[in-house]
Input
Amino acid sequence: MRVFRGLNPPADAGAVITIGNFDGMHLGHQALLRQLRAEAQTRGLHSSVLTFAPHPREFFARKAAGAAAVIPARLHTLREKLEALAAAGIDETRVCRFDDRFAGLSPEDFVRDVLVGAMHAKHVLIGDDFRFGARRAGDFALLQTLGARYGFTVSSLNSQCLGGERISSSQVRSALATGDLSRAEALLGYPYAMEGRVVQGRQLGRTIGVPTANVQIHHDPLPLRGVFVVDVALDETRAAVPQASRRYAGVANLGYRPTLGGDTRPLLEVHLFDFEGDLYGAHLDVRFLTKLRDEMTFADFGALTNQIQTDLMQARRFFEQHPLSHIPQLSVQ
Output
């Protein structure tokens, strides 16, 4: 998949385009991308996605409240989003910086300068709740009118529903925030995951026989916190690890480690079962399968150690009932 930053260079051929934040590749996003690929194949054109950084909701929250802004949790980093779009078979993605200038584009300016001028739109596929332009003034009818003026056609896809409710990134955030990983998985079609590179940590886990990999993450604020049973995939080309398997069962703590003095940035610590090797520099994909407990403050390190042993025992029991081979993978092809 080709990735463009900003409006330059312009695309070199016509495209079928969809527009969105794609924060968390949920079932609604997957349906939209499948339809995008089908439309592109039928028309003999490229499939192209327009997305934004930062998320428009984050931009407007910071603009309205400054340092006191309540920022919605980000489900995907930009890297994770681009990897998910590539996995969906999209030909190209254009990432535009969402700032005052971009937010101020009128609907017609957005169509003329972005969809036509930069992306060479021949067909635009949108969700049924899509709005565009300054103050969200543009809707489906206006996009059709502008499409006729600038030489592209428009179609929409109805929202996907689960249990009578529209599937959305907000629904996924709500499920994760309450620790309802089963609900989040139902909305996504696969377990929620974070990824990052293993970096040097304080190595306290080694002192109690539970070594952990400290995964560098860029999700702040966090969409979920606590201690979890996890399924971990790793890129073995970046670390001295066994070659027999790339997926491991484990336990993870995601949060700020209050018992150990607290951290100012969120930390993801992962212990892999039945693993030997050096993980430093490896890239881990950590999938959250079930929540064991909230992050807690313990009276001392000994009490924390006892709880960790209980967590490990509960996690092993989980995998006795849920083998790794039965856990679904992300597939949007």
